[in-house]
Amino acid sequence: MTSFYSIWPSVVCVVGLLAFASTPLFSVADTAPTLEIKRVRTLDGLRGFLAFAVVFHHIAIYRNFLLDGNWQDSPSRYYTELGPIGVSLFFMITGYLFWFKLCKEKGRPNWHSLYIGRIFRIGPLYIFAVLLAFALDQVHGAPLPIYTQLKPLVSLGAFQYQDPHMFLAGVTWSIKYEWCFYFSLPILALLARYPKVRTPLLTFAASAFAIAATLMPRGDGWKPTNVSIMLLFSLGMLAVPLKDQLTALPDRYASVMSILLCAAAFLPRTTYAPITSILLGVVFLLVSSGASIFGLLTMRAAIRLGDVSYGIYLLQGLALLSLRFTPVRRFALSSSPHFWLIQFVEVTMLAVTAMITHVLIERPGIKLGRKIAGNAPQETPRIG
Q: Which segments constitute the Acyltransferase domain (predicted)?
């Protein structure tokens, strides 16, 4: 049984995905350099790995889900922690990018452009995914009342889509927190106007969140507390003033430190534990300062997967649906090699689907948002 949860099949899948993403077929995912902000290539490359970390976390869950219908963590520490670690670093990326933007513009960004950009960056693919899931819900057992899904659909995820049959693998919960952070930006912008006090106050806030997250009850199972999420955003924001102090650190040392600290983040037995968040915060600081993990994060293939990471994250549940068909399920559950062979096919198809939706849905949505906002062709920081 434990062979189903071996680490190595996921490593083989990632190597295969990088090889596939390096081919000319994936070149349509290439994005022209943005003119608005200085992109951090290591963060661009990190996104794809984070999205697939969440995918492999759910793949491990899916095996037991097929057996007994219960959506719960797998018995593997590696796969159980892999998803929360990926989501945690996604939140840090969001905190980093938008705090960088606020500081660069001295707390006075173009709010009209920023929020329209967010709506048209998140909205089109989110609507596409939720409508597909809702259509599947209608034919899977008792149809759901349409009005129950209008609020999460119209709010573009600010109110969570419940995903009763896990067709989206339950991933939409994190988008709610992204919106909460976006809504807090006007308040954070006031702090960004005062360079002398903003870093000390941000450090104090992160420390307070860490202490509060340690002391307060954990809540329901794997779910993070609101304070835990605020800690993750604040750690990403702290990387903005601190990263320049580490740019002189040789990449090989920064890469080794990042790998060791990331490995240590798997040790705590509680997902989203403050100590895990702090360890990941240091990893994020190193990566945002240029640690490339021995060139892995700056590979063209990694950056391509990072560019389509929103689709990888949001559409993963739909990619796993083939396991619900009896012949596929029977074959996958018959042995560990069969299971991971199916997973390799599914993650490859997920990458292809994410690439297609990036070109046909995400990019046109971004372009329309810029047109409505009256922007030049410049890109605001991206989700995930």
A: 43-324
Contact present, 67 and 333 (Cβ < 8 Å): yes
> Is residue 384 in a domain?
no
pLDDT tens, residue by residue, 156-195: 999 888 887 889 999 999 999 999 999 999 999 999 999 9
**pLDDT digits 0-9 by tens, 55-89:** 999 999 999 898 888 888 889 999 999 999 999 99
| Distance set, CA 280 to CA 87, 245, 260 (Å) | 11, 18, 11
C-alpha to C-alpha distance for 75 and 163, rounded to whole angstroms: 24
Contact between 361 and 128 under an 8 Å Cβ cutoff? The reply is yes
Q: Per the domain annotation, does 378 fall within a domain?
A: no
Q: Does residue 383 belong to any structural domain of this protein?
A: no
- Length reported for the chain: 384
Number of domains composing the chain: 1
Tokens 């693998």 map to which residue? Answer: 169
Does residue 258 belong to any structural domain of this protein?
yes
This prediction's pTM = 0.93
